[in-house]
Amino acid sequence: MLLDLLAEGLVPWNVWTIVAYTLIVTHITIVCVTVYLHRHSAHRALDVHPALAHFFRFWLWLTTGMGTKEWTAIHRKHHATCETAEDPHSPVVMGLGKIFWQGFLVYRLAGTPEVLARYGAGCPDDWIERNFYSKHTWAGIILMFVINVMLFGAIGITIGAIQMVWIPLFAAGVINGIGHFWGYRNYECPDAARNIVPWGILIGGEELHNNHHTYPNSAKLSSKEWEFDIGWFWIRLFETFGLAKVRSKGPVSTRVEGKASLDLDTAWAILNDRFRIMSRYAENVITPSVRAEYDKADEATRRVLRKARKALARECSIVTARQRATIDAVVKSSEELRVVYEHRIALMEVWRKRANAEELLAGLRKWCVEAEKTGIRALQDFVVELKTYAMPAAKTA
């Protein structure tokens, strides 16, 4: 009887049953990581009902052995020290190969008592955490293996092995590695984070990594209309049943049609939404200027201009040597592109150097006047757009 149980398990199964079960249990783990560990615990982008939070903790103990405080502290340090020697898992510093293949080991080594003490505030510290989850991290994984074998027999060992590598491969390897190396960028945040694909399904929405690093306190990781974040779907479902409450969806600003003056309200809105504004600068100022130069350039210059749009819009701190060479070449060959590029840098300096609201407003007004004087239509239109920004009116009860 025992041998039959080990061979076949309690559940009649075929290949599709095993595939479906494996995808379901690994997806539950991904939801626990992205909704609970990442968006709730590390960034406080949403509140989670205590009952749901404890299910997340239990499931993570059962399938990964990860503790809330360890994961949260290491991730917070990653954001605080991103792409520096202090970053716990930067492929820019350590190399993509090391993070992709050894990401989980790198992650575990980063969880020192000092890191946990500095970055782990606000994590569970109840009796069951201290005396069970944190003390017996491997017990849950062993129990999960036993459950899998009881359900499906010997094939349950394979299922358990897949569960064991799922998070190290996709979270530690793909997100922490590829997510800082390959993909597209909606926003020029000051690190190398990229969106791997616009459909965040397999890894719970974490594929939209550039969006997250730009707005880390947003519970929603999708930004463009054509992007999909399945983690956000689950959060909205939990909200429907009163099990979660979103605290932030990113920066708040609005546009007032016909508004034609810069005031303090506009200045705060621009500061608050600066990454999206600079994305629009790249789209509405840099891109048409590059296209105009391309249409009248010779073939040699066109080869440089093909690379110019991204280079001219790239965050200065992560510009590569090749991109710097492209920037230098195009600003020497085109007076309009030189002006457009220098105004982009100058606009970012306005909010980087502001000491108070009055200085921010004065800097923005000066920038707008100088941009209008250039005679470049795209810049002049952008000034008109900037003046329409405002903070949303406060809701009254």
Describe this structure in words.
The chain has 397 residues and is mainly alpha-helical. It folds into 2 domains: 2-246, no CATH class; 255-390, no CATH class. Helix content is 64%, strand content 4%. It contains 20 helices and 6 strands. The chain has helices at residues 2-8, 15-42, 50-63, 68-80, 91-94, 96-110, 113-119, 127-133, 137-152, 155-175, 209-214, 230-240, 264-272, 274-296, 299-305, 308-313, 321-333, 335-353, 357-373, 377-386, and strands at residues 46-48, 199-200, 228-229, 244-246, 254-255, 389-390. A two-stranded antiparallel sheet has the order 1-4. A two-stranded parallel sheet has the order 2-3. Helix 11 (209-214) links the parallel strand 2 (199-200) and strand 3. Helix 9 packs across helix 10 (155-175) and helix 17 crosses helix 18. The radius of gyration is 25 Å and the shape is elongated. The chain starts with a helix and ends in a 7-residue tail after the last strand. 39% of the residues are buried. The model has no long low-confidence stretch (mean pLDDT 91).
Oligomer description: single chain
Name the helix and strand elements from N-terminus to C-terminus, one letter apiece: HHEHHHHHHHHEHEHEEHHHHHHHHE
Radius of gyration using CA atoms only: 25 Å
Largest sheet: 2 strands, antiparallel
Terminus-to-terminus distance: 66 Å
Helix content: 55-70%
